[in-house]
Structure formats: structure tokens, C-alpha cells
């Protein structure tokens, strides 16, 4: 029996033991996790079966056909995409057993406490302090751009534990309890009018030492796992033709001939071609992953989509002419998901400005491509051998 | 969804062609040839066609070819583009061959083209986009009269496929016409003027469908050649900038240049996806018009920019005749007009995907 056949058999067994129609959503998700069908590439006992990641599609197809509930992956993207791979790689057995199951089922939402007002592209310069006290740590500092902080039960946190060594070496990685009384979450309103993100103030937050992930001072290396997975998650969406932001512009163009001008036509066609090529490039990357030959294209996909989203939505506002002068709603909302399609062109224009900043600015990504893909020399560093406390700020 | 990867066989084919070109198609000899009266390399053509059987990839086995597909021909063109190899592969083994495949009475010629022992050229100007109007000569009984210009690789062609005003496509042997080389921007794919003065021709089929099919395949696979040119430009420039030192540093360490190269890399990997999609669509016949048009609308500006960036980032040495970058710049710029400009393809796309002009 092939792995795929075996997975189909196990999935049918799960469905027979827990018929979706008669089982509560959470009960079904827990049973699915315990059967090793949550993420088949994870180890046995932790929601998986130690099989290739590509075989997950076999399970998902069977479950979808049976009308089984899923874990609403978009809502818990940070947990699934960033916290889970990091816990899997660096967590203790106790940490894996404690955190992974409720993370996957969505019972416990996760957020990421990385960026700070003074540490954006230079994340390793972060200044949130964690000081050893008894059998734990006390954390003080401020984090920013934290999505889901107001919904989260746990956070992955990086903090400075040794200010006397160069910045990359004095960082430690923790799991932070968001219900601690020292955690204060405030909405951060952005240019669209809404507040997708938060500022998080940490004042005397106590973290037991058994919630440290990886060694003391080893947090930067641990964080690389998190950040690499973030970029995979951001660049990896599968799209049909006209599936991205070009879709609404193309529809408007077709439905409203009165808006057409020659200048807009030339620009629209150029962007349509670029959007289609970006879609093909993403598809090629996915085919490489499935074939087990991951290419470096992933680093570039986020760059491509950021620029395209901005140019296309900018064109869309202009295409709408008089309506382009209006905005649908400036009310401060707290959306759980970023939804580019549910709003007007003006929203898409403003929100996509963040695409070239969030998850690594386009400038930093270009450096990464130049150095890691093309092998060009790194920037001369003046901060490498300087203790964190002596850095310019 | 189309298969956008390279199979193991395709990678083996690439390695074989690259080895051959590394040994037999260096810049010095290409340049020396370009300055002579015989810019093409007949020995290289013989090895590619006769030795490796690559001229017949698009021809079914029962019609004298290898029975492969556009996917394999695209891989060959990537490598020929990298080396700007002066062989009539795109013009004879792709465009003229596709024209004959569309004709009812061209099979005798097809076998010759597939073996590479006969070189064919479609007598339609290289700038012509698929679906665009093309010039025809006057047919008077079996004799053809007129003059056609901008015919790529006509100087080495043994047979010309000539559209005539009676709607026919005629096979005319080279010794029945006067071929005059035109001084061409692209030194490695020279154009010529073809004059017919009561030249005897044999009607092989209808011109319109044959030309349309030939130019579509030419445009689609040209994207793979453009990919090869762009990839050469990127690779060589990265290599040079790691080596070249100014201000006591490798020049490739300056962020202004790193960002330009990273941006170019992104465009080259995107072009690879578009070119693979076009080759696959030509092979399967699915979604072919849109895939070819998208690839051509994208490829030309990327290949030209890659060659232009290569020249600029090489500094003074890039401006010299002896440095190989100008051969790629000339090829990339000529390719941006060949088989229709990016703008012409965008215009065609407007109809194909219903994004109409005002």
C-alpha cells in the first residue's frame, strides 16, 4: 500500500469513528490531530505521521469531500505558519505536548512579539529586556505591529537577555502568556482607518524558564526559523488567472466602457501581463516544492506581489475617476483578517502600501536575494563586534 | 495547469547542448564570423542537426523527425540564446518547419528540414507578429515576381517559403532567387532582401494559416531564447561584479548595484515561468494564444533590460567591441521586434482576454 492509500484509509477511519455531521467541530479537530492527520509532515504523537508535506493534500481532499470542518487556517496563520515550526524545531517534549494541539485546533490563538518601534528592519537591535529572577524571567518593553494580540492566548517573544554582547548574541526566545497582568494591548490605527494590528506594552511580565524556546542567548537563531516560515506563508498563495488584485480592475474595465482611456488601457494591459507572469512564477515555485526541489524564487515572490498590488490598486483608483475621489469608510474597525476584496479600490490602494513593509521591507528582501541567491558581498558591518548597549540609537 | 518545470530528459538535453556550445561557440569565433561574409557556423549547425538530431524535434517521427515537442525545442533555444549561436535553429527548425507542418504538400521538404540537411526560411519579415498582415509576391502561373525584405537567415537558406498574392505558400529554391544581405542590428541573426524575378515555385499549401501557425510558434519559443540571453547577462554581470574592485571593495558589494541585480534576477525567474508556460502550451495546444502572447509581452523588455544592465554595470569594458555583451544587447533588441513587439502582443491580448480599447 502506498503512503497515499494508507492516508486515505486512516482518513476514512477517522471519518467513520467521528462522523462530521454528528461530532462537534472541536471534538472532530482534536480527533483529527490525535489521528496524525492534522499536518502529516509533523511527527507521530504531535498531529502528524512523519510523511512528506505534499501528502497533506490527500487528507484535505478526503475531508473536504466528506464535509468535515477545518481549523480555519487563515484565522490562526501566525500559530500555524510561524509558532508551530519553531516549537517543533526548538521546543522541549513538554512544550510540544502542551502547545501544538490547541494551536492547531485553534483553541489557542498565537501572536508574534518581534518588531519594536526602535527595531524594524534591524530586528536584532531590539531593546525589550528580559531579566533573570528566581526560576523565571521578568520582561519589560514595547512591541508593535502585532496582529491578533487582542485575540491571542500565547505569543512568541524575543527579548534581550544580555546587553553586554553584540546584538545577535544577547537575545532569547520565549513563549509569553498574553493573559499575564503585565501585558497591555492597544489597537494601532493605520492609514486605512482600521486597526488590524496592536501595540503591546510589557510591564513586569513574568515568564517561567520552562517557557524559553532554545538556549539563553540563542534567540536570534531560533527566530530565523520563524521568519523563514513567515516569508513562505506570505508569498505562497495559489491563484487562478485574474485571481489577485487585477481581478476587480479587469471586471470594472469590462463592465464600464465609459471609464476607459487610451493611457489607462496601455497601463492595464502591462499590469495584466505582469500579474499573470507573477501568478505563473508562483505556480512554478509550488511545482518545484511538490517535486522536492525548492527553488530560491520564494524570496522574490513577496517582492513581486508587493509592487504589483500597489501599482494595480493605484491604477484602479484612477480608473474610477470621480468615484476614485471617495473612500468607502474611515470607521476604526478591528478586522480579524485582511480582506482585499470586500472593500473599495481606495482601501486596496492604502492597504497594499503595507505589502512592501510588512514581513521584511522590499529593500531588505532585495539585499537577501543579492546576498543569499546571487552570492554578492554583504554590506560592510559596523555593528557586528559592538555590544548591544553601545549601539547608536 | 501546465507543467512549468524541466524534466530529467530536458535537463540532459540542456547539458548536452551547453557542452557543445562551450566547446564550439566561444565569443571570439562568433565575433570573427559576424565580421566575415559568412556569419553562420555550418559545422555547428551540422553537429546540432545531424549529430544530435535537434532540427527535427517538432516533426513527427512518421514525417521524418524526432517526434518531440516545443518543450524540448525551447530548452535548445535557451542554450542557443545564451551563446548567441549563429545557427538558423529558430528560423528553420521552428518557424519554417511549423509552416510546412501546416501545409498539405510539404512533406518531402519537411524530412529535409528535420534532418538539418536542408535549411528553410519563411519569407516573411522577421518583425511580423502572428496574425499581422505580411507582404506577398505576385504569382503569375508558376512564376513568382517581387521583393521581400527583412528575411532572417535567408543567406543560408536552401529553400524559401514564399507567400504569394494568390493565397498560396510557395517553396522556392535559393538558387532561383537573389538573396542580398542587409546590414543588420543583430550580427548573429542577419537579415536579407530576397528578390524573385520569375522564380519558379511549387505551391505547398495556403499561406495564411501556415504563416500564422509558424509565427505563433516562433513568438512563443523566442521567449525561451530571450530567457537564455537574459540569463547570460545576469550571470555574467554577477560574476564580474564579484571580481571587479573599485574603492578597495568588490563593486558587487555596493547596495545600489545589489538591488539592481536582485530586481533583474526576479524578472529573469519570472520570465522562466512565462517561457515555460508558452512552450508547454504550444506542446499541448491548451491555452496557446494567451500563453504565447503573455510570454512575448513580458520577455522582450526583460531581455533588453538584462542586456542593457549588463552593459552599464560592466562599465567601460562593456562598451568595447571585444567584450561579448554587445552581441547579447543586439540580439535582445532585435528580438524585441522579432515576431511582434511587446506592444503588439499586448494589443492582441486585449482581444484575447476581453480588455478592449476605448
From TrEMBL, chain A:
**Transmembrane ranges?**
none
What are the required cofactors? Answer: FAD
Q: Where is the Acyl-CoA oxidase/dehydrogenase middle domain?
A: 111-195
Residues covered by the Acyl-CoA dehydrogenase/oxidase C-terminal domain = 217-374
Q: Does the keyword Oxidoreductase apply?
A: yes
Question: Which residues does the UniProt record annotate as the domain Acyl-CoA dehydrogenase/oxidase N-terminal?
Answer: 27-107
Keywords of this entry: FAD, Flavoprotein, Oxidoreductase
For this protein, the record's PANTHER family field holds:
ACYL-COA DEHYDROGENASE, ACYL-COA DEHYDROGENASE FADE34
What family classification does the UniProt entry report for this protein?
Answer: Belongs to the acyl-CoA dehydrogenase family.
- Spell out the protein name for this chain: Acyl-CoA dehydrogenase
Query: Organism source for this protein?
Result: Streptomyces prasinosporus
Automatic annotation (TrEMBL), chain B:
Concerning InterPro entries, the annotation shows: AcylCo_DH-like_C (IPR036250), AcylCo_DH/oxidase_C (IPR009075), AcylCoA_DH/ox_N (IPR013786), AcylCoA_DH/ox_N_sf (IPR037069), AcylCoA_DH/oxidase_NM_dom_sf (IPR009100)
Q: Which residues form the Acyl-CoA dehydrogenase/oxidase N-terminal domain?
A: 7-94
Q: What Gene3D superfamilies does UniProt report for this protein, alphabetically?
A: Acyl-CoA dehydrogenase/oxidase, N-terminal domain, Butyryl-CoA Dehydrogenase, subunit A, domain 3
Domain Acyl-CoA dehydrogenase/oxidase C-terminal, first and last residues per copy: 211-351
Q: Name one Pfam family in it.
A: Acyl-CoA_dh_N
Ligase as UniProt keyword: no
Recite the UniProt keywords alphabetically: FAD, Flavoprotein, Oxidoreductase
Cofactor(s) needed, names only, are: FAD
Report the sequence similarity comment from the record.
Belongs to the acyl-CoA dehydrogenase family.
The name on file for this protein is: Acyl-CoA dehydrogenase family protein
Q: What is the lineage of its organism?
A: Bacteria, Bacillati, Actinomycetota, Actinomycetes, Kitasatosporales
Amino acid at each position: 500500500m502506498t503512503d497515499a492509500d494508507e492516508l486515505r484509509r486512516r482518513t476514512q477511519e477517522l471519518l467513520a469513528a467521528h462522523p462530521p455531521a454528528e461530532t462537534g467541530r472541536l471534538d472532530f479537530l482534536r480527533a483529527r490531530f490525535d489521528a496524525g492527520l492534522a499536518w502529516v509532515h509533523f511527527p507521530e504523537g504531535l498531529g502528524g505521521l512523519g510523511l512528506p508535506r505534499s501528502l497533506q493534500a490527500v487528507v484535505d481532499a478526503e475531508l473536504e469531500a466528506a464535509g468535515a470542518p477545518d481549523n480555519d487556517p487563515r484565522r490562526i496563520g501566525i500559530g500555524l505558519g510561524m509558532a508551530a515550526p519553531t516549537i517543533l524545531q526548538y521546543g522541549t517534549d513538554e512544550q510540544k505536548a502542551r502547545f501544538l494541539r490547541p494551536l492547531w485546533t485553534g483553541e489557542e490563538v498565537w501572536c508574534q512579539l518581534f518588531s519594536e518601534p526602535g527595531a524594524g528592519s534591524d530586528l536584532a537591535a531590539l531593546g525589550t529586556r528580559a531579566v533573570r529572577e528566581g526560576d523565571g524571567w521578568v520582561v519589560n518593553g514595547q512591541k508593535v505591529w502585532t496582529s491578533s494580540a487582542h485575540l491571542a492566548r500565547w505569543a512568541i517573544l524575543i527579548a534581550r537577555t544580555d546587553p553586554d554582547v553584540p546584538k545577535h548574541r544577547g537575545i532569547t526566545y520565549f513563549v509569553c502568556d498574553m493573559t499575564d497582568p503585565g501585558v497591555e494591548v492597544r489597537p494601532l490605527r493605520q492609514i486605512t482607518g482600521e486597526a488590524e494590528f496592536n501595540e503591546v506594552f510589557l510591564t513586569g511580565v513574568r515568564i517561567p524558564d520552562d517557557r524559553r524556546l532554545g538556549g539563553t542567548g540563542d534567540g536570534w537563531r531560533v527566530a530565523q526559523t520563524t521568519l523563514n516560515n513567515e516569508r513562505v506563508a506570505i508569498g505562497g498563495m495559489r491563484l487562478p488567472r485574474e485571481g489577485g488584485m487585477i481581478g476587480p480592475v479587469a471586471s470594472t474595465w469590462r463592465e464600464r466602457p465609459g471609464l476607459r482611456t487610451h493611457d489607462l488601457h496601455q497601463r492595464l494591459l502591462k499590469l495584466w501581463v505582469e500579474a499573470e507572469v507573477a501568478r505563473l512564477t508562483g505556480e512554478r515555485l509550488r511545482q518545484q516544492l511538490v517535486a522536492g526541489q525548492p527553488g530560491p524564487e520564494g524570496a522574490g515572490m513577496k517582492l513581486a506581489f508587493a509592487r504589483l498590488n500597489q501599482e494595480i490598486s493605484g491604477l484602479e483608483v484612477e480608473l474610477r475617476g470621480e468615484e476614485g475621489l471617495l473612500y468607502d469608510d474611515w470607521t476604526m474597525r478591528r478586522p480579524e483578517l485582511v480582506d482585499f476584496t470586500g472593500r473599495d479600490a481606495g482601501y486596496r490602494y492604502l492597504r497594499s502600501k503595507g505589502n512592501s513593509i510588512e514581513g521584511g521591507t522590499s529593500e531588505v528582501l532585495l539585499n537577501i536575494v543579492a546576498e543569499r541567491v546571487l552570492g554578492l558581498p554583504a554590506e560592510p558591518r559596523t555593528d557586528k563586534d559592538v555590544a548591544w548597549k553601545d549601539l547608536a540609537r | 495547469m501546465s507543467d512549468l518545470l524541466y524534466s530529467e530528459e530536458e535537463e540532459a538535453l540542456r547539458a548536452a547542448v551547453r557542452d557543445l556550445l562551450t566547446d564550439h561557440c566561444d565569443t571570439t569565433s562568433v565575433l570573427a564570423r559576424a565580421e566575415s561574409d559568412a556569419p553562420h557556423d555550418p559545422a555547428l549547425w551540422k553537429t546540432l542537426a545531424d549529430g544530435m538530431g535537434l532540427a527535427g524535434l517538432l516533426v513527427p517521427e512518421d514525417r521524418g523527425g524526432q517526434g518531440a515537442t516545443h518543450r524540448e525545442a525551447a530548452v535548445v533555444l535557451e542554450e542557443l540564446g545564451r551563446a548567441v549561436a549563429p545557427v538558423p535553429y529558430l528560423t528553420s527548425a521552428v518557424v519554417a518547419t511549423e509552416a510546412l507542418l501546416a501545409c498539405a504538400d510539404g512533406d518531402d521538404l519537411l524530412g529535409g528540414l528535420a534532418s538539418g540537411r536542408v535549411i528553410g526560411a519563411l519569407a516573411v519579415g522577421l518583425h511580423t507578429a502572428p496574425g499581422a498582415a505580411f507582404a506577398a509576391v505576385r504569382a503569375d502561373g508558376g512564376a513568382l515576381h517581387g521583393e521581400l525584405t527583412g528575411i532572417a537567415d535567408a543567406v543560408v537558406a536552401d529553400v524559401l517559403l514564399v507567400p504569394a498574392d494568390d493565397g498560396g505558400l510557395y517553396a522556392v529554391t535559393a538558387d532561383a532567387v537573389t538573396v542580398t544581405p542587409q546590414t543588420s542590428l543583430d550580427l548573429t541573426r542577419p537579415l536579407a532582401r530576397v528578390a524573385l524575378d520569375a522564380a519558379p515555385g511549387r505551391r505547398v499549401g495556403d499561406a495564411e494559416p501556415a504563416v500564422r501557425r509558424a509565427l505563433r510558434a516562433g513568438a512563443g519559443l523566442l521567449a525561451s531564447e530571450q530567457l537564455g540571453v537574459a540569463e547570460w547577462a545576469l550571470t555574467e554581470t554577477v560574476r564580474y561584479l564579484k571580481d571587479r574592485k573599485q574603492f578597495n571593495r568588490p563593486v558587487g558589494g555596493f547596495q545600489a548595484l545589489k538591488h539592481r541585480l536582485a530586481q533583474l534576477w526576479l524578472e529573469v525567474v519570472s520570465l522562466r515561468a512565462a517561457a515555460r508556460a508558452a512552450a508547454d502550451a504550444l506542446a499541448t495546444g491548451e491555452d496557446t494564444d494567451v500563453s504565447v502572447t503573455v510570454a512575448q509581452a513580458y520577455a522582450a523588455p526583460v531581455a533588453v533590460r538584462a542586456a542593457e544592465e549588463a552593459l552599464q554595470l560592466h562599465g567601460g569594458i562593456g562598451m568595447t567591441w571585444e567584450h561579448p555583451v554587445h552581441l547579447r544587447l543586439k540580439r535582445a533588441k532585435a528580438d524585441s521586434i522579432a515576431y511582434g513587439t511587446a506592444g503588439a502582443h499586448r494589443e492582441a491580448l486585449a482581444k484575447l482576454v476581453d480588455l478592449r480599447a476605448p
